[in-house]
């Protein structure tokens, strides 16, 4: 018996090439019948199929000598070379199916891919899906699934991708999902999950993507997440996470996206985060009790930065001149902070800059006939949104406004101390939709 099991496990992983000779045999008819039965049970719980994707799913359709006609049903794949009649994939995404997910899918013991994303399926995730021993990819995202994430999924120990985002799941994230040591992608975003982020997730050593966004998760960001050394994307925005951001996140040296925006984080932004040179997107907006300064060498330590989205925190100090060296910057959103001093002219050397919003800070500047900052921004040929409102900028309305890129759409200068008239050449900004200049 154990020899047979070993053989079965081996086969799935070696579907492409035969490394050792093993007789190709039809699986016992009972197992085939069980697969067909499981599929028909799945179909039985589908209440709506507007695109008629399941019309081929009829008992006996495509019947052949091996009784494996279901292998040609739409969405069904039987790709195991050694076990030709066994279902290995079920892919019925974007079909607008309604109904619930049958627990009988657990009888498809050779299933490695279950992708029924982007449908309108409701009901619970059957705990029986955790019984699928060969499951590698489970994609149930964008449905209307309810109830809790079954802890039993932790038994499907080969899982590499687990996507449950955009459903109506409630309850906690099961701590024992950390058993899924092969997991590379875990996305449970946009549900109504609550409770803490299990610190045990820090042991998922192959994880590259962790999506926790748009839930009701509370407590803090576990320090253990700093152990996810292959992590590329961490999205935990729009939750109720509180406490300090752990220093350990600075160890995530492969990180490209770090999004902790719209939580209740407090304390100081750990300096270690500004050391993650791989980071392209750094979002901390809307943590109104989070303070910190932008390090003086930020342009050198974050050379790949594209999006610096940190509005609505309590950043203080100056905007460092080195920001001009983070040459890939596209979005700089630092409004609603407590930044002071002048805006360094080096921002004008950011050729890809599209958005610069610095409104509602304590920035200041004074000039003679024209404002050098405005002049320097004329080189940013992709700039479409510029907010400098509610600061302490004072002097004549800079004539060089008219030399801003004609991609400019939103120009907010209100609540400063500008005087003088605006040049009629402003018409050159042909895409301008908003120009606010109120005192
Ligand atoms: C039926 O099974 C045999 C092996 O037993 C295989 O050679 C054959 O291709 C199968 N036929 C179909 C239609 O799947
Ligand atoms: C059998 O399946 C094929 C596609 O595999 C489909 O075109 C056909 O309509 C089905 N026949 C019946 C009777 O369901
Ligand atoms: C699913 O149905 C909705 C309306 O009920 C429709 O807007 C959408 O395009 C459909 N999706 C697909 C993939 O057919
Ligand atoms: C098929 O799956 C159902 C639900 O998980 C289970 O109750 C039943 O025992 C399974 N049948 C077989 C033959 O394994
Ligand atoms: C599921 O199918 C969609 C559409 O083809 C695809 O984008 C997605 O990557 C698939 N999910 C998995 C886990 O393979
Ligand atoms: C995971 O925990 C749940 C309860 O939260 C339990 O039902 C399940 O059996 C556990 N699974 C494993 C593999 O430990
Ligand atoms: C989120 O959690 C809070 C308690 O922390 C609770 O009062 C609230 O109802 C929850 N909201 C949702 C949408 O679950
Ligand atoms: C994971 O991180 C925590 C806190 O940073 C640490 O105490 C623990 O030893 C680490 N565990 C492993 C397995 O590396
Ligand atoms: C940043 O990295 C440098 C060099 O890798 C290291 O010496 C320094 O301690 C780090 N700073 C922080 C705050 O982690
Ligand atoms: C930008 O980088 C250049 C070359 O590496 C360096 O000379 C310059 O001082 C840096 N500018 C700032 C403002 O850090
Ligand atoms: C614009 O860029 C050019 C060429 O890179 C440079 O010579 C010039 O000084 C820049 N102008 C401003 C206003 O920064
Ligand atoms: C606009 O730019 C042109 C070309 O660089 C320059 O000649 C002109 O003086 C600028 N106008 C203003 C008002 O700064």
TrEMBL record:
Q: Which domain of life is it from?
A: Eukaryota
SMART domains from the xrefs? LRR_TYP
- One Pfam family name is LRR_14
- Coiled-coil ranges from the UniProt annotation: none
The positions making up the signal sequence are 1-21
The protein's name is Leucine-rich repeat-containing N-terminal plant-type domain-containing protein
Q: Which organism is it from?
A: Digitaria exilis
Record bears the keyword DNA repair: no
Domain Leucine-rich repeat-containing N-terminal plant-type, first and last residues per copy: 34-78
Q: For the Disease resistance R13L4/SHOC-2-like LRR domain, which residue ranges apply?
A: 153-322
Keywords in alphabetical order:
Leucine-rich repeat, Membrane, Repeat, Signal, Transmembrane, Transmembrane helix
């Amino acid at each position: 018996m154990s020899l047979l099991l070993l053989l079965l496990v081996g086969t799935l992983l070696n579907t492409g090439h035969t490394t050792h000779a093993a007789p190709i045999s039809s699986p016992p008819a009972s197992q085939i019948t069980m697969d067909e039965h499981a599929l028909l049970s799945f179909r039985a719980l589908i209440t709506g199929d507007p695109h008629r994707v399941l019309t081929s799913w009829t008992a006996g359709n495509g019947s052949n000598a091996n009784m494996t006609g279901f292998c040609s049903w739409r969405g069904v794949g039987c790709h195991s070379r050694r076990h030709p009649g066994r279902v290995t994939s079920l892919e019925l995404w974007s079909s607008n199916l309604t109904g619930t997910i049958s627990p009988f899918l657990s009888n498809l013991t050779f299933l490695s891919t279950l992708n029924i994303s982007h449908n309108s399926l409701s009901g619970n995730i059957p705990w029986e899906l955790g019984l699928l021993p060969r499951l590698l990819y489970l994609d149930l995202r964008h449905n209307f699934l309810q109830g809790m994430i079954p802890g039993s999924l932790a038994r499907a120990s080969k899982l590499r991708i687990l996507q449950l985002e955009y459903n109506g799941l409630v309850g906690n994230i099961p701590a024992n999902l950390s058993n899924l040591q092969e997991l590379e992608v875990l996305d449970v975003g946009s549900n109504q999950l609550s409770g803490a982020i299990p610190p045990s997730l820090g042991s998922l050593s192959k994880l590259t993507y962790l999506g926790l966004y748009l839930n009701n998760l509370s407590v803090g960001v576990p320090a253990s997440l700093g152990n996810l050394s292959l992590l590329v994307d961490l999205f935990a925005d729009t939750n109720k996470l509180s406490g300090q951001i752990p220093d350990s996140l600075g160890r995530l040296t492969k990180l490209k996206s770090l999004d902790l925006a719209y939580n209740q984080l407090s304390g100081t932004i750990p300096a270690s985060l500004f050391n993650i040179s791989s980071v392209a997107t750094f979002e901390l907006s809307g943590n109104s009790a989070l303070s910190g300064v932008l390090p003086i060498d930020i342009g050198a330590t974050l050379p790949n930065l594209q999006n610096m989205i940190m509005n609505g925190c309590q950043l203080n100090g100056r905007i460092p001149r080195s920001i001009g060296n983070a040459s890939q910057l596209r979005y700089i959103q630092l409004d609603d902070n407590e930044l002071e001093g002048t805006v360094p002219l080096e921002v004008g050397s950011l050729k890809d800059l599209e958005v610069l919003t610095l409104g509602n800070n304590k920035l200041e500047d004074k000039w003679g006939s024209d404002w050098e900052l405005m002049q320097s921004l004329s080189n940013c040929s992709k700039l479409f949104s510029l907010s400098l409102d509610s600061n302490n900028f004072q002097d004549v309305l800079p004539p060089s406004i008219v030399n801003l890129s004609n991609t400019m759409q939103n120009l907010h200068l209100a609540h400063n101390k500008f005087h003088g008239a605006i040049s009629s050449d402003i018409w050159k900004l042909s895409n301008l939709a908003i120009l606010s200049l109120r005192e």
